[in-house]
Design a protein that fits this description.
It is globular and about 65 Å long. Helix content is 26%, strand content 31%. It is of the alpha+beta class and 413 residues long. The protein has 3 domains: 5-112, Aminopeptidase (3-Layer(aba) Sandwich); 146-288, Aminopeptidase (3-Layer(aba) Sandwich), CATH 3.40.630.30; 306-401, Nonspecific Lipid-transfer Protein, Chain A. The longest helix has 15 residues, at 95-109. The structure holds coenzyme A. Coenzyme A (COA) is lined by residues 24-25, 84-86, 91-97, 119-121, 123-124, 127.
């Protein structure tokens, strides 16, 4: 079903769906009017449920929508999937499997070449053909050591209080910035609202009043970057609070540098942290002491399920000319086959079925991991997750799939 929304409130079916989804994630019990407002934010999306008659409340939920996904050199429509939750009394009966299978089959019918999700758990989605495609990691900047190599600030920083004004500035910046990162996704209005205000269903739509939005404009006054941050720990006791970055997007290196300068210029702050940073953040190189920045373990971010291998491979661009044959295994039957990828026409790579010998044999989940260029096929070959059928093929594939910048999606959903 899709939510029917009247005057900012969703219908009873959507309210029941939202209540069930929150319960499965151990979320709060919200009043019906609040649930109706949460449900209204899902307008236009697909809500799936499994129902046990005569209970009108679903025992299992799944939500999805079409989102533009950046791929190297282009973009595709992806089926963004979330809200997979099963009532604690109904687990391990195949309900999550059923809803996901239904959703992926519908995406295939709609001609959507990939599905994406971020997961609460690491071992759940590979069985459904998803492969881990982007990673993120926490970085921590010690302000007592953070001195910028370039001491001269440029442009101007403006603090924007009202969420609608912040969105008007940050939205277009994000729309440009996300094209630089394979794996980045366009955001729904509800996702923007959550980023800018912190009001989400799990906290009963209470805004996070510690959030601030700062926009950086270049010398011409054009917004080229923004950061949303919040005070994580108070300064009262220590005078050295922690500032946490929720979202930082920049369309130019200068915008990136000046946003960091702004973050590091706060009085009363000792540390700036970012939980969902890319694995290749340049911030240590902005500073004269690398050790001002510590990097913590990488964690799984975006999982990608290839639904149409030829369409997805043809939608991205490649850094060199080669031709390689991939044999893809897909138990669900969405996109199995032996596909020849020929990149000699760099503007229009050709992908189609072939009877040629395979160079690389891999499950569809491994294809999902490597297709954006964020995971090296040689690493998967060493882990036994991808088979090199011709000598050096994993290396050839790695060079072919290399992305212009490290895949990154800084927002879980
Ligand atoms: C995770 C969850 C959705 C699974 O639902 P479910 O209906 O019990 O799952 P199914 O019975 O359809 O199981 C599907 C497969 O996943 C496996 N699986 C289920 N839960 C799993 C878990 N937490 N970790 C790893 N594997 C899991 C099952 O063993 C089964 O595998 P198999 O078919 O290969 O034997 C459910 O337990 C839940 O709602 N958890 C809390 C919310 C949550 O974390 N959701 C995931 C959001 S990303």
């Amino acid at each position: 079903m899709t939510p029917r929304v009247t005057e900012g409130s969703a219908d009873a079916g959507t309210v029941a769906w939202t209540r069930a989804m929150l319960a499965a994630f151990l979320g709060p019990r919200l009043d019906t009017d609040l649930l109706a407002r949460v449900g209204a934010g899902l307008e236009g999306q697909r809500l799936r449920g499994a129902y046990a008659d005569p209970d009108p409340s679903p025992v299992a939920t799944l939500r999805s929508w079409d989102a533009e996904l950046t791929v190297p050199g282009g973009a595709v429509t992806a089926d963004a999937v979330t809200g997979i939750g099963v009532r604690s009394t109904h687990r391990r009966r195949g309900l999550a499997r059923r809803l996901l299978a239904e959703d992926l089959a519908a995406a295939v019918r709609a001609g959507t070449p990939a599905a994406v999700l971020t997961s609460t758990q690491g071992s759940l989605y590979e069985r459904f053909g998803f492969g881990l495609a982007t990673l993120s990691r926490t970085i921590r900047v010690d302000m007592t050591r953070a001195r910028f190599r370039d001491p001269v600030p440029r442009g101007t920083v403006e603090l924007v209080d009202r969420p609608d004004a912040a969105l008007a500035l940050a939205g277009p910046v994000h729309a440009r910035a996300r094209r630089r990162h394979p794996g980045a996704l366009a955001r729904t209005p509800a996702q923007w609202d959550a980023v800018l205000t912190g009001a989400v269903a799990h906290n009963g739509l209470e805004p996070d009043r510690r959030r601030q939005v700062a926009v950086w404009r270049d010398d011409d006054g054009t917004p080229a970057g923004y950061v949303v941050h919040r005070l994580e720990e108070g300064w009262y006791a220590t005078g050295a609070a922690t500032l946490g970055i929720i979202d930082l997007q920049a369309t130019t290196p200068r915008a990136y540098q000046e946003l960091w300068r702004h973050l590091c210029s706060h009085d009363l702050v000792g540390t700036v942290t970012w939980e969902h940073a890319s694995v290749d953040e340049p911030v240590p190189w902005l500073l004269d002491d690398h050790r001002a920045v510590t990097v913590e373990g990488e964690r799984a971010m975006l999982w990608l399920r290839v639904l149409d291998a030829p369409a997805l491979l043809a939608a991205r661009r490649y850094p060199l000319e080669d031709a390689i044959v991939l044999e893809v295994a897909d138990d669900a039957g969405h996109t199995p086959g032996r596909w020849r990828l020929d990149t000699h026409d760099r503007l229009a790579p050709a992908v189609g079925p072939t009877r040629d010998e395979a160079d690389v044999v891999l499950p569809v989940s491994a294809l999902g991991s490597v297709v954006l260029g964020g995971v090296d096929p040689r690493v998967l070959a060493r882990a036994g997750l991808l088979e090199e059928a011709s000598a050096g093929a994993a290396g050839r594939l790695a060079r072919l799939l290399a992305a212009p910048s490290v895949p990154w999606n800084g927002l879980g959903f």
